[in-house]
UniProtKB/TrEMBL annotation, chains A, B:
Localization, UniProt: Cytoplasm
Pathway involvement of the protein, from the record: Lipid metabolism; phospholipid metabolism
Coiled-coil ranges per UniProt: none
Superkingdom of the organism of origin: Bacteria
Name assigned to this protein: Phosphate acyltransferase
Summary of the function given for this chain in its UniProt record: Catalyzes the reversible formation of acyl-phosphate (acyl-PO(4)) from acyl-[acyl-carrier-protein] (acyl-ACP). This enzyme utilizes acyl-ACP as fatty acyl donor, but not acyl-CoA.
Pfam families the record matches: FA_synthesis
Origin species: Stigmatella aurantiaca (strain DW4/3-1)
GO terms for MF: phosphate:acyl-[acyl carrier protein] acyltransferase activity
Main location (coarse class): cytoplasm
């Protein structure tokens, strides 16, 4: 049994090792690296024991900071989350979530099937009192920089957990996103905005107009009003609040633009010598466009609203992204993200 | 009084000359060019007579294909559409719309305040029987090419006329967008899709799920199911259907990405000699990225659903875009877009 957040000396992170695009290898290697870098973090690896031990045997790690919990099944990327979770009682993500719920670990990291992850959390965790619906947040790079570390990242939520959000849900998402940006990006007063079809307070459907009115009177949130689609890649604000339907489409649109840029670069490399020389000279510039549009480079996307921390790493995560996701999860635990959210909610 | 669509020899297009970002000059020059290129089109220029005559005096044109209707007022870009239209009885866009409604012209082109344009249409025109809400469609360039002319354009609607759309509205938008793509892009069976947060038929809010079910059984529409945000820049389909809230955010996001690319190019030109040489070599590549993300290059965005044709040109349109918008409007009139829409609606 782990201690209460106030007196944590060592933070245990449960890693769902299975079900990522690269299989267990990258996740185990990421956790192994974490054991070398972070003395205060213990990694609890959940998945096929033989596969985990095989990777650990070939990877430098600190054995005293890693333990293994066998889980005989896992959920693949293309499985239907609800059916698969119901059928596979020993799926690694379900076992890992329950270990966190039971107090055997403080937080969960997974690079597996997003829907199955969110469902596993919903099944094992409790919603924070006052939170009606959870939100999946995405961290994505922008043109602007901000915060203490000047990281050029913004948060957008929800991106798919709650397809239809009420005004009350949007207010909750604003509080949750603000708390996350404050704790993880060390940004004292993150700018929070609602996504709408115009900056005026009366723009948008009724739920957005009502959320605007409520957020305008909340002292705990640095609410700057509405932003438009053009502000998403620009990074005008730190936290963009919308429903899961809109957020999902926007996030995938960023991905589409990134694919276009990558395709162009590949085409140039293959087809044209003249282009190739130009691209070599321009590599830092092309890299900058890619950085701006590459929403994958920042591995961790938190699911916010539950009483336990869950960081969803991208399915294509390499070891380094997993190590970072583990650190982010530990930071959220150490700074009591759940308590910060609860204290920020309207009474 | 102009003839009925069936026996049109000459098509009259009313141009709202005022209220664009460049004032009357570019619009009048665009109409003047049209008079040189298109013998079957007559341009009725609505706005300040002195200003119009001043530009015409300095611009080559065919005088017998141009007439002028004086309007003493106009609505600026930053005015509130409803208030301004109510106060300015002689605003050029309102006068022009009424001329079209009265049969003095077949279609309207404006590069002015979008909201005022849509309201002026709503005030003077009738909705096509069976259409409950009008839609503003945007034509934007994509990675893919299609249709007879292989133009790399897709249509997305609604992008702001109808913030909240019902399932019935979405079905109507699909029919209208399909008719427009068929007539204007000469694309016999345009692929039509609903924008959602997943390709499965049950993905999305109830209105989208219901629209999916209805469209699946409509023989007149080449409905290919749901597409995701990633498909917008890719140009997977010809017509993307969504509500005005989502469509507006997506369109402005494309604009934001374009701004980012342009900013990068400017930065490179200013700052780095090494980059400059690379950019020169890469100019066709950079142009291709700009083309993909520059939603402005295709001037005309139709408002669909009214019994009269209205093409909204971008506020920043230069003469060439206005000329093109006039041709698109004439094409829509000649091919009886309104009739095609009405025949495609579910009975």
């Amino acid at each position: 049994m782990v201690g209460t957040p106030q007196d944590i000396k060592e933070i245990t992170i449960a890693f769902d090792v299975m079900g990522s695009d690269h299989g267990p290898e990258e996740v185990v290697r990421g956790a192994a690296q974490l054991s070398l870098e972070a003395p205060h973090i213990h990694a609890l690896l959940v998945g096929d024991r033989d596969a985990i031990d095989g990777v650990l045997a070939e990877t430098k790690h600190r054995a005293e900071r890693i333990s293994v919990q066998h889980a005989s099944e896992f959920i693949a990327m293309d499985e239907k989350p609800g059916e698969a979770l119901a059928r596979k009682k020993n799926a690694s993500v379900g076992v890992a979530a329950q270990l966190v719920a039971d107090g055997e670990a403080h937080a969960l990291v997974s690079a597996g099937n997003t829907g199955a992850c969110v469902l596993a959390c919903a099944r094992s965790f409790q919603l924070i009192p006052g939170v009606r619906r959870a939100a999946l947040a995405a961290v994505y790079p922008t043109r602007g920089t901000r915060g203490e570390k000047e990281d050029p990242f913004s948060l957008i939520l929800d991106v798919g957990a709650t397809v239809e959000a009420t005004a009350e849900d949007l207010v909750t998402f604003a509080v949750m996103g603000s708390a996350y940006a404050r704790i993880i990006s060390r940004n004292e007063r993150p700018k929070v905005a609602l996504l709408s079809n115009g900056v005026e307070p009366q723009k948008g459907p009724p739920r957005v107009v009502e959320a605007h009115a409520r957020l305008s009177t909340m002292p705990g949130v640095n609410f700057v009003g509405n932003v438009e689609g053009v502000d998403i890649p620009k990074g005008t604000v730190d936290v963009i609040v919308t429903d899961g339907f809109m957020g999902n489409v926007c996030l995938k649109m960023l991905e589409g633009v990134h694919d276009t840029v990558v395709e162009l670069a590949q085409y140039a490399y293959k087809e044209k010598l003249r282009w190739r020389a130009g691209l070599a000279m321009l590599s830092s510039g092309i890299q900058r466009i890619k950085d701006i549009t590459d929403w994958e480079q920042y591995g961790g996307a938190p699911v916010l609203g539950f009483d336990r921390i869950f960081i969803k790493a991208h399915g294509r995560s390499k070891a380094r992204a997993i190590t970072n996701a583990g650190k982010v999860a530990a930071k959220a635990v150490a700074h009591q993200l759940g308590t910060a959210i609860q204290e920020g909610l309207p009474r």
